[in-house]
Amino acid sequence: MLARVIHFPMAHWRGQVSVLPNLALTLLGLRFVIAANGGLPLLSLDITVLVWQIVGSWRALARHQRSTPDFLISVFGYGSILICIPVFLAPQLDRVTANQVPQASLQDDTPTGVRVEPNYILLSGPINFGMFDALKAAIEQHSNTKAIHLASDGGRVFAARAIARLVRENSLQTHVDGTCASACTLIFVASPSRSLGATGRLGFHGYSNVSQVQLVDIAEEEATDRASFTMMGIADSFVDKAFLTPPSDIWFPSQQELSDAGVVTLPFIER
């Protein structure tokens, strides 16, 4: 079994995989999947995978052209290799942009926006994969943590989904005392135990593509997160209104609306 697992990467690297499956699946397919998920967590790993993809595809294409010259295959092959470069760069540029978003109103002492408090972990500022990495490490170091407090105007949807997965996997309660808007709400609704402080508010809107390269289908991404909201018991009418709000606008429901729709599941906290 291990030999088979090792064989494919080596066969690809040597250009021994058939050229069409190589280009369509290992090169383009895998690269678009990686890009759609915001790139690999480590830039060095992402670059290594990209080099492996391109070198293997280039060798497979050269091998094919030597044995069976085909102009269309040649155009498709070298074009596919060129396409992979901007597809690789787009999520990296998105991460840089995310780090330039102004911090949320609740001040944070760390650049990742993750701060460990005695009874909870605070997430504040723009949501990105740096926040995900820092939160994962904080949870591992403080395994007795039971709650996440959120104070963010949003950020990267794929990073928010990754953080939401941490919330679910660790059975964490989510709480908001200030503002949690846009992608931040994906993290908030990931927990079945959701609470709001007296001045807490949640902001919702539909999605837009902020990258210069269209990598994902916006409607499909909205459908994915609509399903997540519904799975967590939020009323369909509320979900419809949330995602129909234009990306240029934002809807802040009243606490009564949040309670009636099942967005907030614990009693409001008066402070």
What does this structure look like?
The protein is of the alpha/beta class and 271 residues long. It has two domains: 2-98, no CATH class; 114-260, 2-enoyl-CoA Hydratase, Chain A, domain 1 (Alpha-Beta Complex), CATH 3.90.226.10. The protein contains ten helices and six strands. Strands 1, 2, 3, 4, 5 and 6 form a six-stranded mixed β-sheet that branches. Helix 2 (19-36) runs parallel beside helix 4 and helix 8 (218-231) runs antiparallel to helix 9 (236-244). It is elongated and about 70 Å long. InterPro entries: ClpP/crotonase-like_dom_sf (IPR029045). The chain crosses the membrane at residues 45-62, 71-90. Keywords: Membrane, Transmembrane, Transmembrane helix.
Comma- or semicolon-separated keywords:
271 residues; alpha/beta; 2-enoyl-CoA Hydratase, Chain A, domain 1; 2 domains; 6-stranded mixed beta sheet; 10 helices
